[in-house]
Amino acid sequence: MNRALYAAASGMAAQQQNLDVIASNLANADVVAFKNAQAAFAPVGPNAMLGTASTGVRQIFTQGKLEKSGGPFDVAIDGAGFFVVERDGVRGYTRAGMFARAADGSLRNADGWTLRGVRIAANAQNLAVAPDGRVTADEGKVTAASAGRIALAAFTAPEKLRLVDATVFVATPGSGPARSLAAGGDRQPKIAFGMLEKSNVSIVESMMAILAAQRAYEANSKGVQAADEMLRIANNLHRS
């Protein structure tokens, strides 16, 4: 009886976590380059007789739709890879390319992460970013002066990166080390200037997932009630 009660209760806990993850996805559906997350679970015991256990939350790195933006320093990755950013000595990786020029010429996002490899002069005009990530700008009498090159990185197992900010990840032993990824070549990602990547959260799919999780939660709840009733009957028989 206790096994049945635990199995049903663990199923309820699993679906509650599932609902929390889906709710977080929906709350961030409008965040630039936000990546959809999925809760993962595994059965416990033979034939899942001992219930369900969480195996963590993993990110889904399918590309979101690219859209034109109004930001003068906005960039997006058309293809695989991540922008390389830094903050307080920590190196991060992100798909979100909404940057602004800081006083020192670096490009930073709203949370203070600095894009590596690029510095824009104060008198820069006519900024341009090539598909291979090369950044140029007119500086005084110098036309199309180099302002750096946007670096991209890739991972063997990106789904095992650890999320440290809304859209910024750090490497883990499971993800493997970052490796440099050249942009602009054949079958390589390209940098899209003046564009941003939308989140890959599907509102319709998320709502359907909520309904499925709610039905599973209710089914497990009935299992808890049934196991509890069987325990009550067994106790009454034992006393009589």
Topology summary:
Elements: H1 2-27, E1 37-43, E2 52-59, E3 66-68, E4 75-78, E5 82-87, E6 90-94, E7 100-101, E8 106-108, E9 114-119, E10 124-129, E11 134-139, E12 142-149, E13 152-154, E14 162-163, E15 168-170, E16 179-181, E17 190-193, E18 195-197, H2 203-239
Helix pairs in contact: 1-2
What distance separates the N and C termini? 19 Å
* Unreliable residue stretches: none
How many strands, what sense, and barrel or not for the largest sheet?
9 strands, antiparallel
Strand content: 25-35%
Count, helices: 2
Q: How many strand segments?
A: 18
Report the average pLDDT across residues. Answer: 90
Helix content: 25-40%
Helix and strand succession?
Answer: HEEEEEEEEEEEEEEEEEEH
Envelope shape: elongated
Rg of Cα set: 24 Å
Task: Provide a quick synopsis of the model.
The protein is of the alpha+beta class and 240 residues long.
What does this structure look like?
The longest helix has 37 residues, at 203-239. It contains two helices and 18 strands. Helix 1 (2-27) packs antiparallel against helix 2. Strands 5, 6, 7, 8, 9, 13, 14, 15 and 16 form a nine-stranded antiparallel beta sheet that branches. Strands 10-11-12 form a three-stranded antiparallel beta sheet, with no helix packed on it. A two-stranded antiparallel ribbon has the order 1-2. The protein is α+β, with helices and mostly antiparallel strands and 240 residues long. It has helices at 2-27, 203-239; strands spanning 37-43, 52-59, 66-68, 75-78, 82-87, 90-94, 100-101, 106-108, 114-119, 124-129, 134-139, 142-149, 152-154, 162-163, 168-170, 179-181, 190-193, 195-197.
